[in-house]
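Justification of computing resources. Each target in the renewal requires a structure prediction run like the one illustrated here; the chain below, 98 residues long, is used simply to show the kind of job we budget for.
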Amino acid sequence: MLELTFVTDPVLRRLRERAARGDRDAADQLVELAAERGDLEELRGLADLGYRDATDQLVELAAERGDTAELRRLADRGSRDAADVLVELEEERDDDAE
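Resulting structure tokens:
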């Protein structure tokens, strides 16, 4: 069964405000909602606030999309996971080229 999450703008605004003040539960909810929507901007903002789960979701989404630019951006900001995925993608490309 597919479960859809409907969240209104005021609810999102309150969650964002709480997350910006360091409320971990609000941030976790935002990360989950943003990941479900594929909202990279929301995830970037949360990652910039230091929420590791948001960075993890960005890496996962970028990897699924083959978005090397986003992976490079994350790796440049210190994400070891993004760097590892970039290496894997490069190895796959090298294998495909042979």
